[in-house]
């Protein structure tokens, strides 16, 4: 018997095999969960579909989280296919490269709006559509980063967006706890992903993280996946509104 046998859920945010969401999906599938995946556009579908199919996924659906109608259509398809769901993994974030290159005070108005819309508000919009389909004991997990709580050089607008995301986790947890739905976040250490490539001096951040973390190494996709599995499973039935650090202890010593 797997920890997630009989459980069904949605993964948002797989872009390729380096994505944190992909590491999460592999752990969930190994534990017995049935998964649905989303992709943003035709180009990303070509990357996501083979990965999803390798985990026996039957539901691989388009969704632009900047569009409410896309999110609503996505959950309508899930309801049609499954009726109910048990979990959602939200691993979506975006900021314009130009707004990451310069000092935070140089962030454009549109860049600020876009980063908070995709990286934070989308969690609220997804949750709103997910809740009516959630079985009792349902769980929602999103992905954040230490830049939400501390100033990380070159992280700029993404730090502010992640801070908004973490606040959203707490408010959603308080609202939905009475309905038996838990909401948490994973704060992973630096990992080489497609999104990380847009952050200046990322290799230096990896090096510093390895030097300062008690584990003296970078965290892995699998480790983030295992922590997410815990937060989505019944093992964490009493945990909600938490920011769960999976960074080798970097936040303790940085």
Structural features, described:
The protein is of the alpha/beta class. The chain has helices at residues 20-30, 42-54, 68-82, 97-101, 109-130, 157-176, 202-212, 221-232, 250-253; strands at residues 8-12, 34-39, 59-62, 85-90, 134-144, 182-188, 243-246. It has a 7-stranded parallel sheet, sandwiched between helices. The protein is globular, with a radius of gyration of 17 Å.
Sum up the structure in keywords.
254 residues, alpha/beta, 9 helices, 7 strands
Strand-helix topology:
Elements: E1 8-12, H1 20-30, E2 34-39, H2 42-54, E3 59-62, H3 68-82, E4 85-90, H4 97-101, H5 109-130, E5 134-144, H6 157-176, E6 182-188, H7 202-212, H8 221-232, E7 243-246, H9 250-253
Parallel strand pairs: 1-2, 1-4, 2-3, 4-5, 5-6, 6-7
Helix pairs in contact: 1-8, 3-5, 5-6
- Helix-and-strand structural type: alpha/beta
Largest sheet: 7 strands, parallel
Largest sheet, order of strands side by side?
A: 3-2-1-4-5-6-7
Query: What is the strand content?
Result: 15-25%
Shape: globular
Distance between the termini: 40 Å
Uncertain spans: none
The Rg value, from CA coordinates, equals 17 Å
Strand segment tally: 7
């Amino acid at each position: 018997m797997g920890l997630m046998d009989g459980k069904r859920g949605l993964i948002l945010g797989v872009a390729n095999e380096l994505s944190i969401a992909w590491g999460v999906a592999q752990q969930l599938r190994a534990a017995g969960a049935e998964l649905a995946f989303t992709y943003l556009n035709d180009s990303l579908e070509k990357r996501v579909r083979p990965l999803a199919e390798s985990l026996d996924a039957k539901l691989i659906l388009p969704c632009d989280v900047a569009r409410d109608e896309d999110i609503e259509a996505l959950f309508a398809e899930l309801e049609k296919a499954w009726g109910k769901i048990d979990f959602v993994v939200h691993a979506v974030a975006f900021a314009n490269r130009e707004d990451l290159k310069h000092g935070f005070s140089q962030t454009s108005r549109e860049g600020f709006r876009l980063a908070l819309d995709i990286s934070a508000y989308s969690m609220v919009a997804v949750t709103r559509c997910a809740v009516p389909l959630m079985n009792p004991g349902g769980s929602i997990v999103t992905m954040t980063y230490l830049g939400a709580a501390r100033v990380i050089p070159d992280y700029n607008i993404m730090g502010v967006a992640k801070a908004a995301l973490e606040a959203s986790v707490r408010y959603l947890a308080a609202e939905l706890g009475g309905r038996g739905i838990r909401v948490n976040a994973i704060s992973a250490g630096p990992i080489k992903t497609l999104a990380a490539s847009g952050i200046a001096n990322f290799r230096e951040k990896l090096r510093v993280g390895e030097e300062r973390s008690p584990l003296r190494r970078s965290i892995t996709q699998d480790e983030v996946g295992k922590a997410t599995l815990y937060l989505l499973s019944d093992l964490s039935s009493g945990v909600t509104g938490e920011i769960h650090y999976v960074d080798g202890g970097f936040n303790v010593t940085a």
